[in-house]
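Budget justification note: compute hours in this period were largely spent on complex prediction jobs such as the one shown. Inputs:
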Amino acid sequence: MDAMGDPTRRAILEQLLARPQAVGELAREFPISRPAISQHLRVLKNARLVVDRAQGTRRVYQVNPEGIEALRSYFDRFWTDALAAFKAAADKEER
Amino acid sequence: MTTVEQGRVTPVSKAISVKTNVERAFEVFTNGFDTWWPRAHHIGTSPMKRAVIEGKTGGRCYSEQIDGTDCPWGSVLVWEPPSRVVIAWQITPQWKYEPDLSKSSEVEITFTPEDGGTTRVQLEHRHFERHGEGAAAMKTGVDSPNGWGSLLELYARKAEENRGDS
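Corresponding output:
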């Protein structure tokens, strides 16, 4: 499954960005079954995009607060590309 | 493995070698910024016309947009041609301008001569933890959900890397 190509998973992430929620709450927002919601949550959890915790008898999901790591990994890729472009320009200047 | 330890986030460090002297390398990086900066990378609402780094301490870093507006995104903290420049990265995780330097990360670029007339260019993007408000907002989900579009894409991409489901 491809996360970008999966609008439901993206929508679930958006819901969780708004506030932490349990599976049951999420299931009310989407026209799909609870097991299907759980399946999506499992994928998001495996990717460390969401974390869960027990709250009474419920399991509450929220976006991983270490999302800043995503920011870092973005810049790691970004600077690789940007510096390659810079190198191309700098190398050319010499010629 | 986490990159967040004791409130600090590991800097992103990169190094490359370019086939020119330090003066020229510094010049291309700063004054020639527009010649190499990835065109899609700006925070304006219209396409970018020109990317500018003003060459002085306190100089502005901004993009000129085709709609005539200027979009600031940083400022020059240290200007030491031809060996070092430090730029405040004043962009929030919501990809908006951040006027508060204490909430901005910074990028240091150093230029060192190498044997054979080439130049080693080292870049360090550090203090990501200063953008922490965005991470906190993510935690509690108080801020505008619409602002998270780009970061969601990052998330989605990261998720995509981990397809071990089903």
